[in-house]
Design goal:
Blueprint: H1 10-24, H2 28-40, H3 44-56, H4 64-84
Helix pairs in contact: 1-2, 2-3, 3-4
Length: 90
């Protein structure tokens, strides 16, 4: 299990909380339907959960390629942000 800290407000936060509630209740189909649009819009935590769901076959068919795709999206965003800010891993 993992714990998420979120600093969003408004409808996005409400949708994300609804998705998390469904996920924690093991209603994976509902969680996926709620979180996928957020993930598509770039919500990093939603992307991570979608990746985990594909990895575990929760509410979707197990698909390691999709899992990897979703789980690496937040890494791509983080890396780009760090590079543009002059930071990096090296």
């Amino acid at each position: 299990m993992f714990i998420l800290t979120v600093c969003a407000t408004g409808p996005v936060m409400a949708d994300f909380q609804a998705g998390i509630s469904a996920y924690l209740a093991r209603d994976y189909g509902s969680a996926f339907r709620i979180l996928l649009p957020l993930a598509d819009q770039g919500h990093i935590e939603a992307q991570t959960i979608i990746g985990v769901m594909y990895h575990n076959g929760q509410g979707v068919e197990l698909d390691e390629d999709q899992a990897r795709n979703w789980l690496l999206r937040d890494t791509d965003v983080s890396s780009k942000s760090e590079r543009s800010a002059g930071g990096g891993f090296f």
